[in-house]
Amino acid sequence: MTTPHTIAVLGLGRMGDAMATRLTSQGWDVVGWTRSGRTSGAVETSADPNEAVAKAGLVLLALFDGPACRQVLDEVRDVLRTDTIVLNTSTVAPAEAAKLARRLGPSYVHAPVLGSVPAAVAGALRILAAGDPDALDRVRPVLETLGTVRRVDDASTAAALKLIANNSLAGAVLALRDSLRQADALGLSRAQVLDVLELGRLGGLVTAKRPFLVGESAAVTAEFTIGALAKDMALLAAASNTPLRSAAGLADASADPEADIAVAATAPAVADAVLEPLRAYLRGHATGDPTHFREAFLPTAHIEGIRDGVFVSWRLDEYCALFPGRPAPDETARSRRIDAVDVHGTVATATMTLRHGADTFTDIFLLVRADDSWRIANKAYHRHS
Ligand SMILES: NC(=O)c1ccc[n+]([C@@H]2O[C@H](COP(=O)([O-])OP(=O)(O)OC[C@H]3O[C@@H](n4cnc5c(N)ncnc54)[C@H](OP(=O)(O)O)[C@@H]3O)[C@@H](O)[C@H]2O)c1
């Protein structure tokens, strides 16, 4: 068992370049290649992946996704010896990782990494490594140059754990976005808000990403892009076949996919226009005046739910007839809030909670933007007694 000394790093993007730089600085012979032909300051590069692979006993992949891994491996198939270790640090789907492991056999090590560019440069990545014990022993000195190693049973599990880890990162970005939106709505100063957030659970993220959060992103290079994290969340949602809010949350960020993930936390709150019919609906309840419901709903709307165990579907006229034109006697004790609004181009969904005396209602709305204004197309509700 010997550790190969020459390493071909295929993919010199953010992570590939940082890992190649770290390995070079620690005395490994590195030859890099990347599709675009871009060269790397500290690392010898080749214009031909076959040339790079032919020189190496270990091939480290730092590619965007599973299809990129397949394409690059196809390209170097003829020069890849059976005893050449392929160490894949890319974040791919569990099924893609399993397929690569089957294709390359005992010389394949799947090793997705936790941590970004600064951790790679400092040799402080956390690496989830899965592979044949012999191959793992051979690559261990290389992995330990890049960070600390946690052994995982198989490639598919390593890939799945990596996606779960990134889901927590996506959740943190979206939690930060919620906090910044609420703070903006309260008119608080961004600098003051970030100072306070740095003291709490999101502190590490806020400290690391502060320039992006104060609008200085042009001056700083993206370390981990919205596009890459959105790719990971799409892979997770597809693999789990279970709803995943962070997948939609990042896809909706309306920011440049090449921007750093922190820029997604600065995406503006939902536009006032989509809130207008929801606010008219709230006024309808507060005043008991059905005119507000006619403003809020499309004339074709239906209001639907289960009443006394039976499904009821009211047309808008029938619904409006339920309101007497004056507030309910206990109006001052009632409360209502908009819980969520998700806009997708010309359609949106919204959820509200209404506390009316002993009853709490969950209202779910479908909205559409027609003729440049938003209206509620339909409402369904549940009455919690
Ligand atoms: N950045 C992070 O903080 C971070 C942290 C942990 C894990 N990861 C994961 O690590 C991997 C690399 O991330 P990154 O941030 O370095 O991404 P990146 O900067 O976008 O680099 C992606 C690399 O993949 C190459 N590539 C993309 N599509 C290709 C294709 N079809 N054929 C050949 N090469 C292709 C690019 O080549 P060219 O640019 O030369 O065209 C580039 O070298 C991803 O799987 C990512 O999810 C990233």
UniProtKB/TrEMBL annotation:
This is 3-hydroxyisobutyrate dehydrogenase-like beta-hydroxyacid dehydrogenase. It comes from the Bacteria. Residues 6-148 form the 6-phosphogluconate dehydrogenase NADP-binding domain. PANTHER family: CYTOKINE-LIKE NUCLEAR FACTOR N-PAC, OXIDOREDUCTASE GLYR1-RELATED. GO terms for molecular function: NADP binding; oxidoreductase activity. One of its GO terms (biological process) is organic acid catabolic process. Signal peptide: none annotated.
